[in-house]
What we know:
The protein is α/β, with parallel strands linked by helices. Helix content is 37%, strand content 23%. It has 3 domains: 243 residues, Aminohydrolase, N-terminal nucleophile (Ntn) domain (Glutamine Phosphoribosylpyrophosphate, subunit 1, domain 1), CATH 3.60.20; 204 residues, Glucose-6-phosphate isomerase like protein, domain 1 (Rossmann fold); 140 residues, 3-Layer(aba) Sandwich (Rossmann fold), CATH 3.40.50.
Amino acid sequence: MCGIVGYIGYREAYPIIIKGLERLEYRGYDSAGIALFDGSGINLSKTKGKVEDLKAKAEASISIEGSLGIGHTRWATHGVPNDVNSHPHYSNSGNLVIIHNGIIENYGAIKEELQNRGYTFSSDTDTEVLINLIEEVMKKEGVMLGKAVQIALNQVVGAYAIAVFDKEKPNEIVVAKLGSPLAIGVGENEFFIASDASPFIEFTNNAVYLEDEEMAVIRLGKEIKLRKIKDDSIAYPLVQELQLNLEEIEKGGYDHFMLKEIYEQPHAIKDTYRGRLRSAQGIIKMAGVDDHLQEFMDADRIIIVACGTSWHAGLVAEYIFENLARISVEVEYASEFRYRNPVITDRDVVIAISQSGETADTLAAIKLAKEHGALVFGVCNVVGSSIARETHAGAYTHAGPEIGVASTKAFTTQITVLTLLALKLAKERKAISEEDFTAYMLELEEIPAKVEKALESNAIVEIIAEAYKDSSNCLYLGRGYNFPVALEGALKLKEISYIHAEGYPAAEMKHGPIALIDDQMPVVVIATKKGHYEKVVSNIQEIKSRHGKIIAVVTEGDEQVRDLADHVIEVPETFESLTPLLTTIPLQLLSYHIAVMRDCNVDQPRNLAKSVTVE
Ligand code: F6R
């Protein structure tokens, strides 16, 4: 978590860093800070709170001049969010200053050693320990900053993306990466450093992404040279041309990124299948699968690893894979999988799903699966992310940047890509008839227009939100393909509106949750016509006889549930396995409107961060 930004060049660094931090606030937003070199010394300002608080504080208290600087927006790990624990951190001499995204696990022992040598610490952070270790190495070994960073990093255990500069050598910034992302934007006689490319996209579209265990001394007037932290060997930087454009990372007239991203779904889903779904030729083209087709064909089972919303997409995929392709699937929380000594063989295919491509637990699960010889296939949104690079093959979701912390378009595009994969494998394995395969392809092409239609429920959803915005609990029920949608609906509500919500398979209700139902309990039930419809209707009856308030998501034209429910939200009819792409839309809108009405920070809910790069 945490976002880091740096600049060295000929422009004023302050506005670039502040704007960059605002774009990276999705990564953490409990405190922020900046350090600028003004030609003679370092001016540093930091504060608990958001980047806008930092702006107010910095502009009132320090000189904001200078064309070298670093900035940080924090998601606290070590030490509570307060002014002192915020980054950047000085070394004891005041010469060095650092920003850090990650965790130094052995900081306690290093701190003790440094304290024995007379170092003092003002914060509770692991980062302040690291910068003083670097300073101690410089003193003891008589080396320059770059070398000192390298020696120090060989002594630490943990994860980091860091940027450090020395006020005695203000023509360079030293950066290093292990486990947390770090991109360098390469301009004409200027360099940008950031956790992702969004802070520098309007200045350059040339970027170098550091690999794990790489570092660089970025020096004005010099080309970037990457070194391996462990053995000092030189790695040649691959300068990539970025596809990102500025429009994609701005709100475009919407009040919140989340709402923009909800409304982007028809387009995003189309972008996901574009070029892959070739209905005229009757094929699904996925290069990453074609390159490993034999492994997919020989697989005894598919293991899906993911976290949060991506895990929910994995659950939907389990139903789809098993039904269409007749392959056995297990879906695992990456955080559990990585620590439970799972049985993995070289006949397993592991699919890792991650919007950010940076989730620490998912990355660790991938490494474990690779060690056991499994083929690992990634489904990521962020191009060039760690997971995309760590997997043997994969398919991007092409949803465009997702900035709202609550995942929306990532979920539906993940399901789209996984459906394509399931259909492709179903065809290869001859588990589906040509007729059904064609029908699925044609129906998938209808989905963007049907999502558009589902978005028309916004007005009714807003009325429902008004009625239930003050609830303290909410239940979400669904069956089959829509059970994971119930889980996802509940997650969306709790994470952005702070209302306690639980998702259940509808039939499980009578094994416990039914005890919660009274006339104060809103129950969102997904009751589309296909699959288990009559059984869900019975579940609705059970809720009604206990006076629960029923909000039903139904297929267009449904009359039976309309008679029973307090509110109905219609979505167009589609194939049963594709219903999650539609039923999830009103649930996203419901949580969005409730959160807005409760005055919650929709795009940056408390305690959360977009990329969970710590375990
Ligand atoms: C919820 C949400 C999180 C993420 C989870 C995994 O709205 O966004 O639950 O889904 O942290 O993140 P990725 O997909 O980036 O691995």
